[in-house]
Q: What sequence folds into this?
């Protein structure tokens, strides 16, 4: 029992006692205690996180200002502490903003923007300041010079954790050799145990930011990554949220805040990708959910017209016999023209005819008369007469159910269901027969349950859903105006109906000019720069949306060559061009990699799941206006289904190419093995054969080429004539480029389409030929006796080629 529990029942005062110790907590105090949430859980990691926050900010600021980033990072040992210095050539920060940017948590320029940035929350750099002051007790030292500014501003400050406000120790103007930019100096308790992670972060940042120059000087190493391109990433645009991505709370907030009155105006002004037409589609779906649909039934048959007319006639009192008769006849005739008619259609029909008749007979059909007429007409349509037990509805529903039911169900079962459904509609309180899809589903459920119970039939879930669907489709959308924005905002259920309607409507993907993906070719380029592999592939997916924010997933693969072959593949994760260094196991990216069956792509994956083995590097980049991280330290991406599915597709796209590469490589390897074996056996066989038969020695190369279905390139000399032959024994055409380097004698072309170029006393006979399967072609040239040759053949894999020259 806790001490509080022990006091329970011992009189009042516990709540008051608790109240005395209850007070609000400043965000800075909170993170002071929960440093790990921001990535500052140890000295080793704290240093990496501080570097990451400062470098990410520097890159963001430079790109935003259109400046090619030039970033210098230095880590010095300073007595018991480490000193971190990060300098950039960005636009600088104004004097007024410096204290808030560095001395206040949750202060930044990016939180409210839907635009791709590295920074998102406005916590990063102030958290580094907090960590530094906590561990070393020293203030952060900031120098910043804005573009065009004469002097630089210098501040020394800490964060007052009680108030989450900056406390400035020193504030002065100073000189600085950089024309613009920002310099941050932090001292902290740290160590270099996470040196590998630090190096990885810098190296991988350079890979995906080829437009940046990044230098790291730390106590035992100096790394410098030069700029590879002057091309900055595409400038991004801020966007409004996409209707497929918002959640209910956000939608209600937006409904409360908007200046629009109508839903249509609201949708068009607050969301991206919604014009008049799309807004209409959303509103149609919203109507279905909010009002339901009106059942539309088959109108009475032509032979029943007289009965319908009589009923209408009876409903209209005191309007003169001719006017009444014409009204009744015209309505009943017109009903014949409908395949199905709903209550509101009948109402409109009655109004139209009544208006006409009023004019013609100079009489009035007031609202009561019209209502009575509609009611009489509707009774005739649904056949409400108790004697026939909704005969008309039963046969109508029979037709619908029959249309979607498999032939396995017998007639009696279908009739049984229709008979039980009909009174559910007929007896419903809503005389206009307005029902939501849910209500129809409930009718079907009850009718099907009863049919199963009493008719010894089965009506499974799919059959039931098919019936619901066809009944719903046969119903009419109502013409009522949707509620206005305020009415929707005031009612949670209505807001939720609007949200569902938004999600249900097909709406084109959000614009991608708010995103700056790396793009497949630059990903390949980046991988090529860092890994000397045999194979590279990359893919960039189209934009998708999650939580109103668009995102693009890209993947890259490198295989073979110098890539580490022992153990598991290396998985590199990036979000908005920032390498994710920690929490690999908690990241959606890693989960997706593990769940792919890499054996399908010819990679080694023991047990069929997990990170594949072998010389593979897998790279994934997620670009989004709001990357869903698992925590504020932005180390791992959350398991959002939309994102996971795109990661998987991107990875599969890149892997598909790897699969064909590996397949080809494997078949080449088998070919090589076969060829090697033949190359040992054939000469022995040939020698034996010559011994036995005493005939001329066999040309092994020719035979080998034929057995292996290879392309054979052969040189023969006949006096001064050199004859090059390409013989294609394979099953496909071969495009071959041959260079025969001749020394000692100038070659003179005798036949064939080749060129001869002289260089440093050697002649290059260059010959390109396309040879169909089973064909051969020959080039001849003349040389003197002493000529020497060296041949090279391009355009074919080594394994498909036999050169005898
Ligand atoms: N080197 C810099 N040059 C110019 N502006 C900067 C620099 N560093 C930070 N800023 C400004 O300070 C703000 C706060 O930075 P901070 O790192 O606290 O948050 P953030 O980058 O917006 O988000 P996150 O918490 O996700 O890192 C930034 O939004 C940016 O406007």
A:
């Amino acid at each position: 029992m806790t001490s509080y529990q022990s006091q329970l029942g011992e009189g009042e005062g516990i709540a008051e006692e608790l109240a005395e110790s209850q007070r609000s907590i400043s965000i800075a105090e909170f993170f002071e205690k929960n440093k790990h949430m921001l990535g500052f859980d140890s000295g080793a990691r704290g240093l990496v996180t501080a570097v990451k926050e400062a470098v990410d900010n520097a890159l963001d600021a430079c790109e935003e200002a259109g400046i090619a980033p030039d970033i210098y990072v230095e880590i010095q040992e300073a007595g018991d502490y480490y000193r971190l210095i990060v300098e950039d050539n960005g636009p600088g920060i104004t004097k007024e903003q410096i204290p808030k940017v560095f001395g206040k948590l949750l202060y930044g320029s990016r939180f409210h923007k839907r635009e791709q940035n590295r920074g998102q929350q406005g916590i990063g750099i102030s958290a580094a300041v907090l960590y530094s002051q906590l561990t070393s007790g020293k203030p952060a030292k900031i120098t910043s010079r804005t573009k065009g500014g004469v002097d630089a501003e210098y501040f020394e400050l800490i964060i007052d954790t009680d108030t989450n406000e900056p406390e400035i120790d020193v504030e002065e103007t100073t000189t600085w050799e950089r024309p613009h930019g920002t310099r941050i100096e932090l001292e902290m308790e740290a160590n270099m145990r996470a040196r590998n992670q630090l190096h990885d972060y810098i190296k991988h940042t350079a890979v995906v930011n080829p437009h940046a120059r990044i230098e790291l000087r730390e106590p035992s190493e100096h790394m410098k990554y030069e700029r590879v391109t002057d091309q900055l990433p595409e400038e991004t645009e801020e966007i409004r949220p996409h209707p497929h991505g918002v959640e209910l709370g956000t939608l209600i907030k937006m409904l409360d805040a908007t200046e629009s009155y109508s839903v249509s105006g609201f949708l068009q002004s607050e969301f991206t990708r919604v014009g008049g037409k799309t807004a209409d589609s959303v509103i149609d779906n919203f109507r279905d959910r909010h009002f339901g649909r009106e059942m539309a039934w088959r109108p009475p048959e032509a032979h029943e017209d007289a009965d319908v007319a009589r009923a209408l006639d009876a409903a209209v009192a005191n309007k003169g016999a001719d006017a009444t008769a014409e009204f009744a006849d015209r309505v009943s005739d017109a009903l014949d023209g409908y395949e199905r008619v709903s209550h509101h259609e009948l109402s409109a029909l009655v109004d139209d005819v009544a208006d006409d008749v009023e004019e013609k007979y100079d009489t009035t059909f007031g609202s009561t008369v019209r209502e009575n007429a509609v009611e009489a007409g509707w009774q005739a349509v649904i056949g409400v007469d108790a004697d026939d037990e909704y005969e008309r509805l039963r046969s109508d529903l029979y037709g619908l159910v029959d249309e979607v039911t498999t032939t396995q169900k017998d007639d009696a079962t279908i009739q049984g269901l229709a008979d039980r459904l009909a009174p559910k509609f007929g007896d419903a309180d809503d005389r206009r027969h307005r029902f939501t899809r849910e209500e129809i589903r409930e009718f079907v459920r009850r009718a099907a349950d009863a049919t199963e119970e009493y008719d010894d039939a089965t009506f499974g879930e799919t059959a039931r859903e098919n019936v619901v669907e066809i009944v719903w489709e046969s119903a009419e959308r109502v013409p009522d105006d949707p509620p206005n924005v305020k009415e929707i905002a005031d009612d949670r259920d209505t807001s939720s109906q609007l949200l569902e309607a938004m999600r249900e409507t097909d709406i084109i993907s959000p614009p991608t000019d708010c995103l700056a993906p790396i793009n497949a070719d630059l990903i390949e380029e980046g991988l090529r720069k860092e890994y000397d592999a045999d194979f590279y592939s990359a893919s960039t997916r189209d934009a998708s949306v999650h939580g109103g924010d668009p995102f693009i997933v890209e993947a890259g693969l490198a295989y073979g060559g110098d890539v580490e072959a022992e153990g598991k593949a290396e998985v590199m994760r990036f979000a908005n061009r920032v390498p994710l260094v920690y929490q690999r196991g908690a990241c959606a990216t890693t989960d997706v990699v593990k769940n792919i069956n890499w054996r399908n792509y010819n990679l080694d994956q023991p047990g069929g799941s997990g990170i594949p083995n072998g010389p593979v590097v897998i790279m994934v980049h997620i670009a989004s206006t709001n990357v869903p991280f698992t925590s504020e330290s932005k180390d791992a991406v959350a398991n959002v289904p939309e994102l996971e599915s795109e990661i998987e597709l991107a990875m599969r796209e890149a892997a598909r190419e790897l699969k064909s590469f590996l397949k080809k490589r494997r078949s080449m390897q088998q070919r090589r093995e076969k060829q090697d074996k033949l190359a040992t056996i054939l000469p022995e066989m040939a020698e034996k054969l010559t011994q036995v038969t005493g005939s001329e020695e066999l040309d092994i190369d020719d035979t080998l080429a034929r057995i292996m279905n290879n392309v054979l390139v052969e040189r023969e000399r006949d006096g001064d004539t050199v004859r090059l032959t390409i013989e294609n024994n394979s099953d496909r055409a071969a495009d071959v480029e041959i260079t025969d380097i001749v020394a000692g004698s100038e070659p003179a072309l005798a036949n064939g389409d080749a060129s001869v170029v002289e260089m440093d006393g050697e002649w290059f006979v260059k010959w390109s030929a396309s040879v169909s399967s089973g064909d051969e072609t020959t080039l001849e040239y003349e040389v003197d006796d002493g000529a020497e040759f060296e041949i090279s053949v391009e355009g074919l894999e080594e394994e498909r080629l036999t050169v005898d020259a």
